[in-house]
Amino acid sequence: TNQNSVQALADQVRERDISFVLNCAGVNSNASVLAPEARLNARREMEVNYFGLLNVGLAFGPLLAARGGGVMASVLSFLAHVSLPSLATYCASKAAAQAVNLALRAEFKPQGVKVCGIYPMAVDTRMSTDQAGEKMSPSVLADEIVNFLSGSCEDLYPGEAQQAYEAWLRDPRGFQSAMLAG
Questions:
Q1: Element (H or E) spanning 22, and its range?
Q2: How far apart are CA 174 and CA 49, in angstroms?
Q3: Cα(6)–Cα(12) distance, integer angstroms
Q4: How much is the pTM?
Q5: Cβ proximity of 79 and 94 under 8 Å
Q6: Confidence of residue 82 (pLDDT cuts 50, 70, 90)
Q7: b/e 82-118 (16+ beta carbons within 10 angstroms → b)
């Protein structure tokens, strides 16, 4: 969340042969939009999930472009496409992050920098400890990311997220309703 710190890291590695940057910072309050601390949660999530991604993109995108290209990938979330009341501020921050990722893609593509979005469902991390249901193993996600980077696609929906994304594309409102129902 500290733009100066992110820029200092980019300056520190400027002379290294870097062709890939992975942004996987994220925070989730796991709280309802009606929670008493909802505004504070939303600000924190936006600071990390949106402004943090923007800081990384603005610091490392020009560095990669100056080298003739590279890849910037950000772990977003499938929840960038839907909104769940119990995670509404998180979903909103990930939707904003998706939007800025698309803007970075448009800006850096002519400079040879491929900007990718990675949209997993729940991943088995500390952040998802309190969430019920199946969770993707971080090592499986890492393997999918490595395999994905060798291809030409700009977005990855790992594991079950691919099927969910296809269902969402067919009927976004129906998918949202189904997510709310169960």
A1: strand 20-23
A2: 27
A3: 10
A4: 0.91
A5: yes
A6: very high
A7: bbeeebbbbbbbbbbbbebbeebbebbeeeebbbbbb
